Amino acid sequence: LSAGQRLMYFGTMWSYLSGFAAVVYLAAPMVYLVLGILPVTAWTFDFFIRFLPYFLVNQVLFVVVARGIRTWRGQQYSLALFPVWIKACVTSFANVVLRTPLDFVVTRKDAVSEGRVPWREIWPQLLAIVLLLVALVIGVARVIAGTADGTGTLVNTVWVAYDLLALSVIVQAARYRGF
Q: Which among 16, 11, 1 has a CA at the least distance from the CA of 104?
């Protein structure tokens, strides 16, 4: 294999680990809003002076590389499909290391054709949505009670809003009934 092919295969394999990163990404604002524990220990100015340029350059490069193609749906699926990526990793690991048969199969289509919501497939995302909303309520209550920092709560509220917007694709997918 050429170096480019090896890099492409590595990138494909590495992408499945994003499910675990998504769980941490979804949990971080919940931990702050409920417990007041910062996901990153840094002074606000120090963190943002490093984070904002990285974030802005990343977003600009994303737009440039996409060349006008809409990418929001891909960003939504990248985050919202965390249970699929985790299951793929776990079953692949079990197959290679423990020699168990592959457990990962194509998503059932029969529930959609019968008009039922596929609760079994989307419960992790729905749980994440509920936990994010509960954490948001607790975080706002902590600010009102004077036991939480307003700036940190505001930043994490925006983070939760982004997560909820990204996870909303699951609700749309569950309601989809085909053509």
A: 16
Reduced 3-state DSSP string for the chain:
CCHHHHHHHHHHHHHCCHHHHHHHHHHHHHHHHHHCCCCCCCCHHHHHHHHHHHHHHHHHHHHHHHCCCCCHHHHHHHHHCHHHHHHHHHHHHHHHHCCCCCCCCCCCCHHHHCCCCCHHHHHHHHHHHHHHHHHHHHHHHHHHHCCCCHHHHHHHHHHHHHHHHHHHHHHHHHHCCCC
> pLDDT tens digit string along 118-138?
788 899 999 999 999 999 999
Q: Please give the model's pTM, rounded to 2 decimal places.
A: 0.80
Greatest distance between any 2 Cα atoms in the chain = 61
Query: Phi and psi at residue 35, in whole multiples of 5°?
Result: -110, -15
Q: Which amino acid is at 160?
A: V
Which pLDDT score, from 0 to 100, does residue 111 have?
46
What is the distance between the terminal CA atoms of the chain, rounded to a whole angstrom?
42
> CA dist 49 to 23, 25, 32, 42, 66, Å?
26, 21, 21, 11, 27
